[in-house]
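WARN retry 2 of 3 for item q-0093 after timeout on previous attempt; input resubmitted unchanged.
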Amino acid sequence: MKKLSYYIFAIGAGFLNGLLGAGGGMLIVPILKKCGLSQRNTHATSVFTILPMCILSAIIYALNGRVSIHDALQYIPFGIIGAIIGSVILSKINQKLLRKLFGIFMIWAAIQLLVK
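OK item q-0093 returned
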């Protein structure tokens, strides 16, 4: 039964990712933490899990004309640079600090969504 609830949350993460373009990772991180993964492994596994969801969502958006490939391409190199930096820092950052930073980010994101 416990595993079934994790699968339901994974479906929810995919749904959020497809609908909102983000948010799946914010749902997957707490689920993976409950599965017993370390904070670092939780974040790394979340990114690895979200990747196919993002690729599929991007393809569907592009096929439906919902995205301008030209507009998106200008941000990709900078996103890759940020991903490299974040991946390197992940292995060096204290796990308690990482958990707190993730919590602060979630609160900040929620406030931004509610205010704007």
